[in-house]
């Protein structure tokens, strides 16, 4: 499944080959909101500013849920993101624990196999 924003990227020829169901959104913020609504978990691989934005949104939603004692969706992050996050931000240990750091393909497989179907 992929939540896309065709108006933002008119030269793209649709979603990538791994997407079996496309959910188009008219704007970036709508795309992120839909992504947060429909996902059962988040796998954050290396990327750019857009990926960082999506990570921050998912992480913030998880932090708020945790504050209220509510369940939150798992967030698996490529280990490379931690090099950016840890030294640059003031992050409470409880908030770091919301992220599953994935350093290998086996870590990714374990994370994905633990998501609800």
TrEMBL record:
InterPro entries: LOG_fam
Pfam families: Lysine_decarbox
Name recorded for this polypeptide: LOG family protein YvdD
